[in-house]
Amino acid sequence: MTLRRLFYGIFLCAAPAIINTGASFSKLKSLSGYLPGTTKELIEMDDLGIKLIKKIHDQKTLIDLLPIIGGCASLQSINLDHQGLVPKDLDLFDHLPESLQLDELSVKDNNVGSHGSQHLMEIAQRHQITHLNLWNTGLEPRNIEIISQMLPNSPIRHLNLGANPLTQESARSLAQAFSGSPKLESLNLAENLFDQNVFEIIIRALPSSNLAYLNLASNEINASRIELLTIILPQTKIKSLVLDYNPLGSKGMEKLAAQLPKTHIEVLSLADTKPESMGLLALTRKLNESKITELILRENTFGHGSSSLYRDDAIIFLNKTLECADHKIKTLDISSVPMGIGACNHLKQICRFQKIDLTITTPELGYSRG
To answer: What is the pTM of this model?
Structure first.
């Protein structure tokens, strides 16, 4: 008899007592001895039985847990990232009871999108999934169109389509979908290889959406493209904007900074956006006029060349901004940003005094949490 069959038999015999009448912790602990592999790490048990399944990380464990899931557990999320899954593996979900409501499903970095997009959306609908992560799942334009058509009637509130290239046709379908999906609160479109036309289609649709979070990282957004976004942003409900790894430059940062006070943005992520000193100066001048409470500036270099004096001018101005009584910043990430020891120590001192949660790493000082 295989371990799995043994486990199934023991579970089916023991389940009624666990569910209906309760059982001692020692009995439950004995039962857990038959759980395969890492399954023991995925559940919490008390006198009431199996209370919670935290996460599932691989296909085999999912198969092994099916009777528990259907029997008495409250499953919150399924994470099958990086498992080499193909579309036919999605048939696994057909074995779950339709009454099971999940919060999150992640199939990141699996080639399930090319022939599984409709199946994924059906799974989301059946199990009332609110968080769906399809990062780098091989979605082709037609698959994104299928997802877009089904999105308005789905329970999905958070959708990650990053690293799946968009064409003009699929961008139009997606833009129409998130404009007509009042439940959709966040959208990740990082690394979607935007060309200018696709970028405009997505951005112009934002005012008619309910999106509060938008991730546009790594899409070659430069000073020219950011101008359209800055015009549109005040018309949106976006509170959290991620622009990491886009070559905004100082000109792009100046354009963005000028519009920030007119937006609803509270969280702004600008990692490695090449703003240089003038870009940071423009940003800090508008910080206290904006609603921003969390600012991510990691992996940027301010100034030119090796001149720490000029490089630190922008940091010194940032310090003065944070010293103001009306500052709103609660969280600042400025890790991997070269700066002089004096400017760094002053920044840490200010953040301690102002109770700002600071993450800072400099080549001179290494990692430090203020």
So the answer is: 0.81
- Fill in the DSSP letter of residue 138: -
Phi first, then psi: give them for residue 158, nearest 5 degrees.
-130, 120
Fold classification of 221-370 is 3.80.10
Q: How far apart are CA 242 and CA 263, in angstroms?
A: 14
Which segments within the chain are labelled E, that is strand? Answer: 43-46, 49-53, 77-79, 104-106, 131-133, 158-160, 186-188, 213-215, 240-242, 267-269, 294-296, 331-333, 357-362, 366-369
How far apart are the C-alpha atoms of 24 and 158, rounded to whole Å? Answer: 40
Residue 96 CB: number of other CB atoms within 10 A?
19
Q: Which residue has the tokens 């092994």?
A: 64
**Cα gap 319→360, rounded to integer Å:** 14
pLDDT in tens, the chain (370 residues): 333 333 333 333 333 333 322 333 233 333 333 344 444 455 444 433 333 344 555 566 656 655 555 554 456 777 778 777 888 888 877 877 777 777 888 889 999 887 899 999 999 999 899 999 999 999 999 999 999 999 999 999 999 999 999 999 999 999 999 999 999 999 999 999 889 999 999 999 999 999 999 999 999 999 999 999 999 999 999 999 999 999 999 999 999 999 999 999 999 999 999 998 899 999 999 999 999 999 999 999 886 544 444 567 788 888 988 998 788 999 999 999 888 888 888 999 999 999 999 999 765 544 444 4
Does residue 331 sit in helix, strand or coil?
A: strand
- Measure the CA–CA gap between 157 and 84, rounded to whole angstroms: 26
Quickly list DSSP for 24-68. Answer: -HHHHHHHHTTS-GGGGGGEEEETTEEEEE----SHHHHHHHHHH
Between CA 358 and CA 233 the distance in angstroms is 27
H helix intervals, 127-248: 141-150, 168-179, 196-204, 223-232
